[in-house]
């Protein structure tokens, strides 16, 4: 028997569920694992407001309908993520942020990854490149193969 899928997912990946682009089918494949009770997709609770902010930017640019945004964000709330309050991550996040010169927001995802000993999936190439030669397990989503559902 294989291990269940376990990752930290950042907003740059998660938002692709609703902002349709070429990686959306791969995100759908990843999120389909949420139906496996042993699978875990970890997020810091700031994930939700980051996704909301991305949607807001698309609405402001006239590329997203406000009613569709409401419906999609309601769907986002229903996904079975394992959410961690950012207050539980801030001490590790500030150390990571200062040491590696990344935002505290990004450092929360990295701290959560480290705390759960699972890879962080991101599409943030700057974050990936900054941390690629460290002990942190940060993987570019485009480079990861999502296994089939067991």
UniProtKB/TrEMBL annotation:
Record PANTHER family: EXONUCLEASE VAPC9, RIBONUCLEASE VAPC3
Protein name: Toxin-antitoxin system Doc family toxin component
Coiled coil start-end: none
Listed Pfam families: PIN
Domain of life per record: Bacteria
Keyword annotations: Magnesium
Annotated Gene3D superfamilies: 5'-nuclease
CDD domains named among the record's database cross-references: PIN_Pae0151-like (cd09873)
UniProt keyword Magnesium, yes or no: yes
Record-annotated PIN domain positions: 7-127
